[in-house]
Design brief:
7 helices; 5-stranded parallel β-sheet; 5 strands; 137 residues; 54% helix; alpha/beta
Amino acid sequence: MKNIVIDTSVAIKWFFSEPGSKKAIELKDKHIRGELSLYSRDLLLYEFTSAFRNYSSQKIEEKDFSLAVSAVMSLKMKLLPLEHREAPELFLISKKLAISVYDGSFLLLANRLKVPFYTADKKLYLKGKTWQEMVLI
């Protein structure tokens, strides 16, 4: 089975129809069918909550957000925390690539697992593609 790392920009597209949503949903469906395994940082839950709270084009009600979080958790993705030993490398990656440590944590996870990293963040993709195998959805 193929493993991949996704960031929050991919998970958000499961719930909001926008460019890249079709590809993001295909990844989720392959995970559900057991064709691949989705990995991410536990940071995804924080960013997911923030994205729903700040999504400006729609008014999101608490009950709808609760359903969305339940749906994400039901996928049983592997959400991994940043380990203490990873912090120095994360610092260097984020500095070298001029990206946030949050974005860098997803890149670092994919690098450590030796798997592709999927993102819908074009700026992150452009900065990170020379350091890590990445796919822009």
